[in-house]
Every structure is written in structure tokens, then in C-alpha cells.
Amino acid sequence: MSARTRTVRNALRRMTAATGAVAGAAVLLTGCGGAGKASVPEGWGTLETGSLSVGYPRNEGYAEQPAAERAKANAAVALKEEDGIRTGMVSVQLDFATGVHDPAGAAAAAGAGIGLNSTRRATDDVRLAGPDDAGEAREARRIDYDFTADGQEDTPNRGTPMTGVLVAGVDSKGVPFVVRLNAVKDAVDAEDLDAFVGSITVK
Q1: φ/ψ (deg, to 5) at 22
Q2: What does the pLDDT look like over 116-166, one tens digit per residue?
Q3: How many CB atoms lie within 10 A of CB 155?
Q4: Burial degree of 199 (CB within 10 A; 0-12, 13-18, 19+)
Q5: Which residues contact 72 (CB under 8 A, 6 or more apart)?
Q6: Which position has the higher pLDDT, 131 or 199?
Q7: d(Cα 58, Cα 79) in Å, to the nearest integer?
Q8: 41 DSSP assignment
Q9: What are phi and psi of 151, to 5 degrees?
Q10: Which of these, 131, 72, 143, lies nearest to 106 by C-alpha position?
Q11: Measured by CB atoms within 10 angstroms of the end CB, which terminus of the chain is less buried, N or C?
């Protein structure tokens, strides 16, 4: 085999390897928020509503709140209670704002409800899991924020540092939704917050 032939073959091998790496990366990227049902971590439970489903960390002490006990504004809730104090809460609100028809509008309305005692840390576009025919309903916005507890309604003592993440959008029928996870700061790590967002399936 000539030196030129070996050089050409080596170049082809490198190109093939690079193409394979790019293809692998593409698979990883498209696997996030893909079509169908979202992945819920082992040990978690799932809240089901007419617009979406979302996971909650049942293995960390969260339990679904009975419909008769939750606020009327909430379509589903899971709570973590310690010594009678609500240290964590997952909630789903549907049709929570009027005149909202897209993720940007839903995020603006949800963001306005975070409160004056909060600090927004990040806002990102996310693509949720769901059926292919859900179309734009799978597009949503994520807002990460910190705030302090007010000590009301069995929440931690006033001034306790808290953290939260919300995902807002509209379902396939145009109904706006917002999903939140609020907890005592550092009680839920960044990995679980990402898993929470990744567990949402829009309908």
C-alpha cells in the first residue's frame, strides 16, 4: 500500500469517526423533551391533569394533596410537610391567566406572580415531552428564582431562604398552564430541579 493510499484511508477513518460523534450528539440533544411521555425518575410520583402530567419527588417525602384540601386555583398539588410545616410544594395551575395564547404570555403572567420578595435567576426556553400533534404546545419557558418565606399558611418561618422553578406555557387546546416547585433552599438540588422540568408531559 502506498503512502498516499494510507493517508487517504486514515483521513476517511477520521471523517467517519467525527460523523459518528456528531450523530451521537444529535441523538442526545433530540432526546431531551422528545415526543411521547416524559421520563419520571424512579421513586417519584406523577400528578395528572387535563393539560399535562408532572413528576414530584415522592421518595423525598412529597405526597399528593387530596382535591378537597387544595386551593381552588390549583389543579393538582404535592406537598412535603415536616413537623406541620410545608417545606416543599409542587403545584399545577390551569387557565390561570386571561388573554394568554403562547408561552411568552404565560411566562410573563406567571413571572408577575412570583412576588416582590423574589430574585429571578434565569429564564430559559424549554421543549416539553408530548405527542407529535401537540405542536407548539410543547414549547414552554422555565424561570428559576429565589425568595423568602412569609411564614403564613404553615410555611417556614418568615425570612427562611427558599428556591423555586416554574414552567409556563399553553396546552394543545390553548389553555395556559404554570407548574411550580418551591422548597426550602438547598433541599432540592439542581439535578432534581432539572428532572422536575424534564418530567412534564403536555397534552
Answers
A1: -65, -45
A2: 779 999 999 999 999 888 888 899 999 999 999 999 989 999 999 999 999
A3: 17
A4: buried
A5: none
A6: 199
A7: 9
A8: -
A9: 75, 5
A10: 143
A11: N
Q: How many CA atoms lie within 13 A of 184 on its CB side?
A: 16
Q: What pLDDT does residue 138 have?
A: 94
Contacts of 30 (CB under 8 A, 6+ apart): none
Query: Scanning the structure block, which residue is given the C-alpha cell 441523538?
Result: 27
CA 145, 58, 73, 50 torsion: positive or negative? positive
Helices (H), the chain: 3-30, 103-112, 190-198
Q: Cβ(178)–Cβ(168) under 8 Å?
A: yes
Residue 155 is placed in which grid cell? 410555611
Are the C-beta atoms of residues 56 and 44 closer than 8 Å to each other?
yes
What residue ranges in 95-198 does DSSP mark as E strands? 118-127, 139-148, 161-170, 176-184
Cell numbers representing residue 84 in the block: 406541620
CA 44/CA 127 separation, integer angstroms: 21
